[in-house]
Design goal:
Length: 266
């Protein structure tokens, strides 16, 4: 992985036990006794096995961290599409975030400038009345693709088919769910306030996207827990709005009142 992330969970200064052992074996005269030679050989093999186990453990931890970072960035794509990629580009250039093979272009100067400009335009567009609702229609499929790519940039050390399956189902699914919830909330705001409350919703979404993007890089495990909680809560609300019946009326007929209660956090 190019420019691997500097994480506190995995030390970047693991001693190379194998090279040191082979160096000693090649420069230190050995005793002629057969028992001593066999004993020394076993020590070398044991040292090699320990190093392999250390590398395997580091790879597993790094893969798990990559999944958590990717899922968090995918959730941020559900709020705003270009904000996570802007944060990824800046963090990668600063040396705080690594990218999988094939995604090094994200940290290039042209890509960083493009992401910054796209982020500004996207945020400004959501403050234009009624255009924000139109953008949500386009943003749903685009956010799904962006979430898939965001997770793929952080997942390595696995089969390509498994990697893209995880990125599509995990990253794309999370981005789709978050984007769907923001679209529903925005539609409810437009229906209940005539669009007056939409700028507040847009500000909250942009702030949430930036917060989730930074938090995914700084504390990926915490971000992963927040995303899972958000997804479960969103699915529960969607189930209540569309399928649950109350007082003999269908859930679909109660969507605007329920969404109003949701906006008031009641």
């Amino acid at each position: 992985m190019t420019g691997r992330i500097h994480r506190s969970f995995v030390s970047s200064h693991t001693p190379n036990l194998l090279s040191r052992t082979l160096f000693r074996a090649g420069t230190t005269p050995r005793p002629t006794g057969g028992v001593v030679v066999v004993f020394t050989t076993r020590i070398e093999l044991f040292t090699i096995e320990i190093e392999q186990q250390q590398r395997l453990q580091e790879d597993h931890v790094e893969t798990l961290l990559g999944i958590c970072v990717g899922i968090g960035l995918s959730a941020a794509c559900g709020f705003r599409i270009f904000v996570p990629f802007m944060v990824m580009s800046i963090a990668s250039r600063a040396g705080y975030l690594g990218l999988s093979d094939g995604f090094g272009w994200i940290s290039s100067t042209p890509a960083m400038v493009a992401f910054i400009v796209a982020t500004i335009l996207e945020i400004m567009a959501y403050y234009i009345p009624w255009l924000d609702n139109a953008l949500d229609t386009i943003a749903i499929p685009v956010a799904t693709v962006a979430g898939t790519i965001a997770t793929a940039t952080q997942v390595d050390w696995m089969d390509p088919f498994l990697k893209w399956s995880l990125a599509t189902i995990g990253g794309g699914g999370v981005a789709l769910t978050v984007q769907g919830m923001t679209s529903v909330v925005r539609a409810a705001s437009a229906a209940t306030t005539g669009g007056i409350g939409n700028p507040v919703v847009s500000t909250a979404e942009a702030g949430s996207s930036l917060f989730m993007s930074v938090l995914s890089i700084v504390v990926p495990f915490v971000t992963f827990f927040i995303v899972i909680t958000l997804i479960l809560y969103s699915l529960k609300k969607l189930y209540q709005w569309f399928f649950q019946k109350k007082n003999g009326s269908g859930g679909r007929r109660r969507i605007i009142p329920e969404l109003s209660n949701y906006l008031r956090l009641g």
